[in-house]
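Sample 3 of the quickstart, ligand flavin-adenine dinucleotide:
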Amino acid sequence: MEWNKDQLALKQRYFLVGRDLVRPSAAYRDENVTFDKKLWKKVGDTGLLGLSMPEQYGGSGLSIGDFSAALEGFSEGCQDMGVLVTFVAQVALVQSSLVNYGTKEQCETWLPALISGEKLACFAITERGCGSDVRSIQTEVEKNSQGYVLNGKKWNITNAPIADICMTFAKIKGKKEKAISCFILETNQDGIEQSEPFSLMGNRGTPIGAIDFNDVQLSHKNLISEEENGLSVLYFSFLIERILTGVLVTGCVRPLVKECTQYSQERHAFGKAIGENQYVQQYIVEIESKLELLSGVIFKALNFIEQGRDCSKLASIIKMYSSEIFHESALSSMRVLGNYGYRRENYYERLLRDAIGLLFAGGTTEIHKRVIWDSLLSDYKNNPKVHRNLKLSWQDAAHLQTAAEAV
Ligand SMILES: Cc1cc2nc3c(=O)[nH]c(=O)nc-3n(C[C@H](O)[C@H](O)[C@H](O)COP(=O)(O)OP(=O)(O)OC[C@H]3O[C@@H](n4cnc5c(N)ncnc54)[C@H](O)[C@@H]3O)c2cc1C
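Result:
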């Protein structure tokens, strides 16, 4: 499968946005561990943050497939994992959960400012004591007459130091382990502390840090979906995140093939182009082959979503495979480019550092293998696991615009 004509036009349009608006300052943000909220607003002005969101909240009402074409183009153009990790946290995790599980009133309250880029959101599940094992979170809410009082410490959260809005998860005090609920809140409330950015190896173009909740008073309007349904919201948002992560990796890796091929023809050693050596060709051929395989699985998953079919296993395959081929491809490119690739004024070394972060963000390879294995086993036992919340209600055909209308 390939993008259709209208999707290709969208892809090209957002390639230019990424290349001209975001890429020129990407190295600066990486160097200074900073995020530019004014730039984020400009990205919002291009419509990208709301492409797949309903029109009534300021979006364009496109399908996830059309949106993915735009995201692939944007990623290829910007080559900035700071902005792209932020993108996944806000659009794939927060906005998608809100639009699929929030009430109309909640969508009206929170979505327009997110879609326009005026406000920035973080998605906080991880804690110092738990990452992969999300059910063991310690953050909790206690019910009172006004709603809930939230206490806990979230850790290693994309944009936690600067986010205006936070979607987070907490257990209801005194209830069983799975009784996790999802809340959305403003970060300027009493009792919320946002840390300084952590110093990390990569993904430095987006501040990653902690957010603490100390007796934060929430009302029922802050609760997303029903009490104790937080894990459903979480697994649904992970599904979208995993597929979109594959899309953005495709966009980031694709130029490497062309740039390495070109360099392999121009750079000479021992009296011939380095590209005449099969050892060198192999690096580039493998990047291209892996990229094609990744694209194939992404199209299959997008197709499943359009048909309303469960694609949780495919989503895990996409996340696992894309994060593995991302760092492998960045490293292979540096091998081909030699000293040129290793220089900090070129983007390859930044891409490699950022790609390593993706081995953890969005779930580790080991955890995705576990998900894939669980799925195989339940199929074998003739007890297929069906994702109960796959239905993307806002993606019903009746609500969707066509890509041609958005271009
Ligand atoms: C760039 C970046 C951005 C992030 N952004 C966010 C964010 O916005 N919001 C958020 O909530 N979190 C975020 N995270 C945190 C991320 O989700 C966690 O790092 C991830 O879930 C892994 O958790 P952990 O690092 O605590 O590792 P652990 O869970 O402690 O795992 C450590 C190791 O043990 C392995 N392991 C654990 N359990 C098993 C098992 N059952 N079987 C096999 N192996 C196992 C893991 O695979 C890993 O290799 C981000 C992380 C990064 C790197």
